Structures are given as C-alpha cells and as structure tokens.
Amino acid sequence: MQGIWPEIWTTLRTEFSDVPDASEATRMVLRLLMAALLGGLLGYERERSGKSAGLRTHILVALGACLFVLAPLQAGMKINDLSRVMQGVIAGIGFLGAGAIIKFSDERRIRGLTTSAGIWLTAAIGITAGMGRETTAVFATLLALFVLHVLHRVEKRMDQRLHQHALIQTDSNRTDLPMRRSTADDDV
Fold first, then answer.
1. What is the pLDDT of residue 142?
2. How far, in Å, CA of 91 to CA of 103, rounded?
3. What CA–CA distance (Å, rounded) separates 79 from 88?
4. DSSP readout, 132-176?
5. If we measure between CA atoms, which residue out of 43, 123, 48 comes closest to residue 89?
6. CA distance 86 to 82
7. Which of 134, 106, 153 is nearest to 33 (CA)?
8. Which end of the chain is more exposed for a tag (fewer CB within 10 A), N or C?
C-alpha cells in the first residue's frame, strides 16, 4: 500500500507538468484572465442593455477562444499552424451567433444582429489575448465598447429624426390634417 502513494504522486506531477516554469504559468494565467476580463466588459455592456447574451456568455466565449489558441501553443504548435484552429473557432462561434438572431416574419424585422456580432468579436478578442497580443485585445475591446455604447445613442437619435421626417411626409400627403411645420425645438 505504501508503494501506491508515491506512484500516484509521480503520475500527478507528470500530468500537471505541461507548464515548465513560473514564467510560462504566469503567461498562461495572464492571458486567460485578460480574455475573461475583456469578454466580461463586453458582456457587462450587453447585460446592462438587457440583451440575451450577457456577462457569462461573453466571458465563456472569450475564455474558450483563448484556450483554443493557448493549448496548441503550449503543446508546441507554431503560430503559422494556428490558422486552422482559428478557422474552427470562427466557424463554431458563427453557429452560436446564429442562435442569437431572431427574425420576426410578421413585422419584417430582424433582432439580435448586434448581439451576434458581439459574440463573434468577443471570440476574436479571446483569440487575440490567447496569442499574447494583449494591447490589441484591449484596444479592440475599447473600440467595441465605443461602438456599442456611443454609436447606439447616435443611431437612436438618427432613427428618431427619420421617424419624425416620415411622419411629416405622411402628414403633408393628407388633405384632412394641417401640415406640421418644424420649429427650432424639433432639433433636440
């Protein structure tokens, strides 16, 4: 019975020896944490906006994409050979993103395109972090947050103005309604 414990310990040490030194372990942890953090930032924004794919989904997508790149790199795969791995991740995320898209046939509109694109981008950010390109991953996340937050407001304002313009056009075509004139107050 005494001989079994040293054998188990040796087996465990061998199985967990894929990280050769503290430097490699730190690099691995940093890349995984970076992917989780950046995915979490995007997920938090989507969660705050009340979207179906929120915090947990985006963190998991970023972590998974990071791991799909990190594990082959640790196994000795060359950066040039990672293109096949990345193609698989991109295709798989495409299926996940497709699940976020809903088409309302009676209203002739589609919902979930931004969420789907966000999931796809989150995977790309996870891949980027997994490859050790943290600066690129951070900048892409900041740019995505700008698009999701700031441009959403711009888009909303444009939609309101287009809707007002359409109402004015509709009202001007009717003879039974007085024509509405725009005033300086309409430009809010």
1. 97
2. 21
3. 15
4. T-HHHHHHHHHHHHHHHHHHHHHHHHHHHHHHHHHHHHHHHH-SS
5. 123
6. 6
7. 134
8. N
CA 157 to chain centre: 25
Give the range of the structural domain holding residue 137, as residue numbers without chain letter.
4-148
For residue range 108-146, list pLDDT tens digits in order. 777 888 888 999 999 999 999 999 999 999 999 999 999
Residue 23 lies in a domain: yes
Per-residue model confidence as pLDDT tens digits over 22-66: 888 899 999 999 999 999 999 999 988 888 788 999 999 999 999
pLDDT for the residue numbered 126: 98
- Find, among 37, 87, 91, the residue nearest to 62 by Cα: 37
Position 173 in a domain: no
**Does position 1 have pLDDT exceeding 70, yes or no?**
no
From CA 66, how far away is CA 28, in angstroms rounded? 10
Provide the residue type at 104 as one letter: F
Residue at 181 is within a domain: no
Please indicate, yes or no, if residue 38 is contained in any of the structural domains: yes
CA distance 41 to 22: 28
DSSP category for residue 101: -
